[in-house]
Amino acid sequence: MFTKLRFAYAVATCRLLQVALLFSRQSVGLSLLPGNGLDGVRHRQWDEIMMKTKTIGLTLVLSLVASAVCLASPHMGNWKLNEAKSKFAPGAAKNHTVVYAAAGDQVKVTVDGKDAEGKSAHNEWTGKFDGKDYPVTGDPASDTRAYKEAGANTLEMTVKKDGKVTATGSIVVSADGKSRTVTTSGTDAKGTKVESAAVYDKG
């Protein structure tokens, strides 16, 4: 399924690049047309207009390409915790739903669940899977997260609080794309080492 999806987005990407190239050629061709009576100043103004138009068009195309690449990732979509298949340390927080959605050329991750005290918890992260730290909002236990691709179906994750690493882990999507396993290791607010293996079903 995901092979077909990646192929479809690859085709869409190529089509978008073809449109960008055609648009670029047409813009250049128009700038070389006779001035139809326009003097040199007006001709230069026309070239500037066409250049700005081409830049806007290419920016739009590149944005669409980036979104297509994001959507092709097997991590995208809605994920629900399968608590029966998961293993948590006593009193650990639990993320019941996790949503990966395209946000321009980035990815937005929205998490809802329960904290260690059983209270409702919600946090959001927006960034790229490039291994760099991006801010987290709504999570008192962390202020940045970084994701890095480590294969077609795997992400490596690093969580930080005040610049210090508090947890690391990996996210692996199954070959059929129907489930994923999030394995994490870190320390809680009391400095105790905790480990968990959370299994999520797509839907």
List the helices and strands and how they pair.
Layout: H1 2-31, H2 40-71, E1 77-81, E2 94-103, E3 106-114, E4 120-127, E5 134-137, E6 144-149, E7 154-161, E8 164-173, E9 179-187, E10 193-202
Helix pairs in contact: 1-2
How is this structure best described in words?
The chain is an alpha+beta fold. The chain is built from two helices and ten strands, in the order ααββββββββββ. It has helices spanning 2-31, 40-71, and strands at 77-81, 94-103, 106-114, 120-127, 134-137, 144-149, 154-161, 164-173, 179-187, 193-202. The chain has a ten-stranded antiparallel β-barrel with strand order 1-2-3-4-5-6-7-8-9-10. A hairpin with a 6-residue loop joins strand 5 and strand 6 (144-149). The two termini are 15 Å apart.
- Low-pLDDT windows of residues: 1-14, 19-34, 63-70
Describe the global form: elongated
Q: Kindly state the percentage of residues in helix.
A: 25-40%
Beta strands, count: 10
